[in-house]
């Protein structure tokens, strides 16, 4: 009895001391996984340490998050770090947050840091081992096999598809003259139809399952966002018990069955056409995405599941990213009459009949490209990307333990006032060739950089130019949404809680 009474204060004092120490070091559950500097200097000299709100590292800081609070939490953390990169400590590992181009460069250029982090595991049921998620040998061989599908000649053959879809889009606009138009409703069908026809070779509008497929993709994204915002949902058992697991499985089946059926149909056609031969000039033929994959299958480089994963990856990566960028670019054009006027003057130089405009002529729309880039800088479709250390790795002079998660905040890198003065102002002229000469090469990275950069960036720019040139040429855009009205959200892509609206009038001059 006496021993117990005496022992209690000693125990409490020991516990208090331990908690004090833990509080000082900001983490409790990742004691074995500390980041240290390579040269033994204090860690604070290389990175800002972010104290957690509780003694449990940063684990409990992000419970019960919504897409909007995730966005704000990251922005507030970046502001607190005062221009430095910063560290969080989570349950099993540290997370290194990179907000500076200078340090991001080393990660982008690294041949070791190509494995994606834990967030991407949430997308794995949808995309399997497709290009976005796979790593090491599988990623290298697939990237090599798929690169020809984005060759200039192939892009040129997609131009007709983009123009055809654009005409349908202009018809929709004609029907909405002088009314407020919700861009979030009308843009996504345009980009989904484009990617479906270029990746799979089928017209979504002509297919009875088209609508069901569209809705299923949307539902999958909703579930993904639910999981991204709650770290507990990263555990499959928790997601199974408390998340929209059943809805997820059901929608995944719809999407996977759809692509699988089309792949099977295309495989039959492929065999009949005997693709893989040389063209009339004796050159080896280049094919669009699915054909490229079927040719690789014929050479034993990929199996049916692999083809499905890659096709689903293209559909996913090529759809929402371009929609988001188009929506923000149209909003910025509506909000900046002077910029819109300059775009109009530039596109006026194109042949009157849009059917006659070539890829070269679209490439020459330099100012329009500056406008797209400035929109991507301020509103990057992919606001952050992730990597992880698969073994102990030295990164930016720090020794990162195995499993350290790395988050590269593209959004913050591109709003760094050292590289983009007055970063919250929309100034497309920043991207005129004469104004980019001295800029850090990794300060503008909306498509990521290095060997894991976006394979579809030229595709995306061409697709967006086709639509933007046609809209600016035919209509005047007026604002119906102000930037201050918007609440931003971190989903898989950058989103806003409110739909973005513009007004259109027919352009007379
Ligand atoms: C505005 C449009 C787009 C933006 C901003 C964008 C951005 C990005 C970014 C930031 C990454 C790196 C992702 C990461 O490291 O996690 C990426 C990768 C990728 N993107 Fe895009 N993307 C766009 C359009 C497209 C299109 C149209 C396609 C396909 C047609 C596409 C296909 C891919 C693929 C397959 C990857 C993975 C590449 C690899 O890891 O080898 N993207 N994209």
TrEMBL record:
Keywords: Endoplasmic reticulum, Heme, Iron, Membrane, Metal-binding, Microsome, Monooxygenase, Oxidoreductase
Cofactor(s) this protein cannot do without: heme
Database matches in Pfam families: p450
Binding locations of heme: 454
Transmembrane segments annotated in the record for this chain: none
SUPFAM superfamilies: Cytochrome P450
GO MF, any single term: oxidoreductase activity, acting on paired donors, with incorporation or reduction of molecular oxygen
Membrane topology, as annotated: Peripheral membrane protein
GO CC field: endoplasmic reticulum membrane
Compartments where located: Endoplasmic reticulum membrane; Microsome membrane
Functional note: May be involved in the metabolism of insect hormones and in the breakdown of synthetic insecticides.
Similarity remark: Belongs to the cytochrome P450 family.
Name listed for the protein in its UniProt record: Uncharacterized protein
